[in-house]
């Protein structure tokens, strides 16, 4: 009961503060930043900076590697990385995800890049997370509903959503979908939460009449939802596909009534590291003003974000036009003058899509500076069309001598995040 009261209080606080400061998000961020100092004072890594009352811009910029290197000194609970990693790995292998350290939830994230990340969440943070999920995603109601949650790993963080009116069922991504279908059909969830790659599998099973569910809301998580996949899924499910942008580093964004992702700037500070002269692409640098167990301060993500300037929903928080992918997915070639040339993944995605409107499944992997492997559904003519468009794209950058080889083996491994365009050297 006490935990439910914590959730209720967190939900009320979230709504009241957002409403009070809805026309001045910066003022709310300033208020939260001052309160956040008590957390930073408990972190050995940040204590001196907090004591000196340093402005946010004077804090060091973090990334995953640095964050994991300083795991022991960043977290406020004195938890050692070695012990947390051991518990998280044991849960990963046993597929039992209820283990904790002194009532602190320990989670393991593979990350889009495959690099492991550890996260710690205490009971108060769990309540705040549930409140935010209820407020931004699921909606608060006393009507009985069920949620089907497809993820690589469960967590008591997710189980915290469970209540008398909200039934939560975890479906393990690492198991074959055919093993889940009977239970899924029987549950007939009100809300379906899954990675786009799993939603695509479910969509194909719905078209075959094997999966017979009729969810009221569908939420895409954990992977980039590419426009062509979104279009297919909305056609199959007959409704808008909502999105959540969440990672080890926090619950970052969710869709508004117009289906557009907005950063949760009522408790996040987002700085932009622009990646091009036109300032159309940036890395978000995240400061999460509600994360206490592991303070997230100026954490640079390598996701490539495009900002949407005017969302028709009217929210003042920063809107996301699209998440293009990761900077690790930039493809680098040598042009005819011997100059290293970078091409953003979105250019390859568009080249493939415009080559043939019937292409619905594809993956392009750069294996070396002179070899690209391309998987796509369809016959040789469809492959040739896509190959021609990719060659035209490379020619625009004066790149020659790149072999585009067809592969019939789908490069996506079950349980890993779907990346349509990637660099994975042999």
Radius of gyration: 22 Å
Number of strands: 21
CATH superfamily of the largest domain: ANL, N-terminal domain
Largest sheet: 9 strands, mixed
Strand content: 25-35%
Could you give the order of strands across the largest sheet?
A: 5-4-6-7-8-9-10-15-14
Oligomer: single chain
Report on this structure.
This protein is an alpha/beta fold and about 425 residues long. It has 2 domains: about 1-325, ANL, N-terminal domain (Rossmann fold, 3-Layer(aba) Sandwich); about 330-425, Alpha-Beta Plaits, CATH 3.30.70. Helix content is about 35%, strand content about 25%. It is built from 13 helices and 21 strands. It has a 9-stranded mixed sheet with strand order 5-4-6-7-8-9-10-15-14, with helices on both faces. A 4-stranded mixed sheet has the order 20-19-18-21, with helices on one face. The chain has a 3-stranded antiparallel sheet with strand order 1-2-3. Strand 11 and strand 12 form a beta hairpin. Helix 1 crosses helix 7 (about 125-140), helix 10 packs parallel to helix 11 (about 225-235) and helix 12 (about 345-355) packs across helix 13 (about 380-395). It is globular, with a radius of gyration of 22 Å. The N and C termini lie far apart (about 55 Å). About 35% of the residues are buried. The mean pLDDT is about 90.
